[in-house]
Amino acid sequence: MKNNLSIIRQQASHKKQRGAALLLGLVFLVILTGLAVTSMREVALDARITGNLIGQKDRFHAAEAGLRDGEYRIAGKLAVEAPGQYPIIPLTRYSDKVAAISRPDAKKECPASLKFDDVCVIDKNPIFAQDFTEAKSYSPDNSNTSFTEIIEWYAIPYFGGASDAASEVPEYGAAAASIGPVRHEINARASDGTNEVRLRSTVVRIYY
């Protein structure tokens, strides 16, 4: 009788041990599953952050290309051999000095029908907020580009105090004769349809 009780107790103890081992196994399985899910989330988050950084970098480069397009169109190029299909600056020489004899005319708007060689200079006062309603599409060589983003730019004349009778050239009558530095504010935007990057720069041409 005692032997039978001992056997029964041993069997019950083995069952309890197996139950405890099963419980521990389930606990470890839950822990491992949680670690795996956390790792997967971290990988997905890293991939998303990397994708966002790459997209931000691409949009920045695209917007910078728009800035360069606007700057080159405002400043022009001094020689036909210079790269890009940008307008040549009309120059005239007086003894040892070279002067530009024309500057871009400001327009009320830059329509879609604006010619490739025309410059998108809008006749309005520079303000902090950028308005791309009348902007010009990026087209440095009058052809398709490798950018997938939508790139636009426009320029605004910046007279640097001329409206307040201020001039950087002290000679009498210089401002009235359009002699001295002339600035244009260039605004550019690159968008992928969801996010965008906006940039701004200033181009200075000196007339004398």
Summary, kept brief:
The protein is α+β, with helices and mostly antiparallel strands.
How do the strands and helices of this protein lay out in sequence?
Elements: H1 2-75, E1 91-94, E2 97-100, E3 136-137, E4 150-158, E5 180-191, E6 196-207
Antiparallel strand pairs: 1-2, 3-4, 4-5, 5-6
Structure in words:
The chain starts with a helix and ends with a strand. The chain has 208 residues and is an alpha+beta fold. The chain is elongated and about 100 Å long. It has a four-stranded antiparallel beta sheet with strand order 3-4-5-6. The protein has one domain. Helices cover 36% and strands 21% of the residues. It is built from one helix and six strands, in the order αββββββ. This is Type IV pilus assembly protein PilX. It comes from Halopseudomonas yangmingensis. It holds the Pfam family PilX_N.
Name the beta content range: 15-25%
Judged by helices, strands and strand pairing, the structural class is: alpha+beta
Overall mean pLDDT stands at 70
Instruction: Work out the radius of gyration.
Output: 35 Å
Count structural domains: 1
Q: Helix segment count?
A: 1
How would you sum up the major sheet?
A: 4 strands, antiparallel
* Shape descriptor: elongated
The percent of residues in helical segments reads: 25-40%
Across the major sheet, the strand order is 3-4-5-6
**Run of helices and strands:** HEEEEEE
Report low-confidence residues grouped into runs of 5 or more. Answer: 90-101
Q: Termini, distance in Å? A: 123 Å
For the secondary structure, the number of strands is 6
